[in-house]
């Protein structure tokens, strides 16, 4: 980069846009775990993990699905403020759990110009969403399977659409258990948002074992069975009851309330134990 001997030289170069221009975006992976509809009300509802996607109405990637996102206004907001603005627009909520995920900066990730995206992971109990989501947005249920060759297959479904993604997972750094993801099959998701989705699912799966992050997706009161299902959906495996009880022993406290109805025996309700 050229060096400037005087302030006047610098200002002249700045005003003539001599510096390389790039854009910044914030993209949001909004995750929830909720009940899947059951035909028989006597059966315990099955939990499903889902994410919010938006269908693009302009180019590039018109009619493709993507994560909620938007360009940063460099003059008025930070990246986190940008992410919160986007969440407010999509969900009408302003107090959703939000954490920075990764920065995605592949040279060809956006065909318009050089765009660097900082992705955020947000967690919510869908029952808190008091207003309808935008007409071009939809919740997609997630099923994912990690095969022996380190290929992750992700299926996203809503009432009308099924999206299949294949992503290669390669160990990048053994000492920190860091992985690199490469898209193998993706015809429906815009930009590199399939990689963002898997990155967020991996982060959530790892953090659930040593933090209380899961409670950001739980209602105020819940049964232990409901909580166990949420853990199992995120970890993508069945947990033995004794092992699960040890995991949450110091995280919850029993209330004097009881869950009734739903066609099964009443169950004690618990709540998150504030530290």
What is the assigned CATH homologous superfamily of the largest domain? Nucleoside Triphosphate Pyrophosphohydrolase
- Beta percentage is 35-45%
> Total number of β-strand segments?
12
Q: SSE string, helix = H, strand = E?
A: HEEEEHEEEEEEHHHEE
Average pLDDT works out at 86
Rg:
22 Å
The level of helicity is: 10-25%
Structural class: alpha+beta
CATH class of the largest domain: Alpha Beta
Give me the number of helical elements: 5
* Gap from first CA to last CA: 51 Å
Largest sheet properties: 10 strands, mixed
Shape: globular
CATH architecture of the largest domain, by name, is Alpha-Beta Complex
User: CATH topology of the largest domain, what is it called?
Assistant: Nucleoside Triphosphate Pyrophosphohydrolase
**How many structural domains does the protein architecture include?**
2
Low-confidence stretches: none
What's the topology here?
Blueprint: H1 7-15, E1 23-36, E2 46-55, E3 65-66, E4 69-71, H2 79-91, E5 97-104, E6 115-123, E7 137-146, E8 151-157, E9 162-173, E10 178-185, H3 193-207, H4 224-235, H5 241-248, E11 252-259, E12 267-272
Structure description:
The protein has two domains: 23-207, Nucleoside Triphosphate Pyrophosphohydrolase (Alpha-Beta Complex); 213-272, Winged helix-like DNA-binding domain superfamily/Winged helix DNA-binding domain (Arc Repressor Mutant, subunit A). The chain contains five helices and twelve strands. It has helices at residues 7-15, 79-91, 193-207, 224-235, 241-248; strands at 23-36, 46-55, 65-66, 69-71, 97-104, 115-123, 137-146, 151-157, 162-173, 178-185, 252-259, 267-272. The protein is globular and about 75 Å long. The termini are far apart. The mean pLDDT is 86.
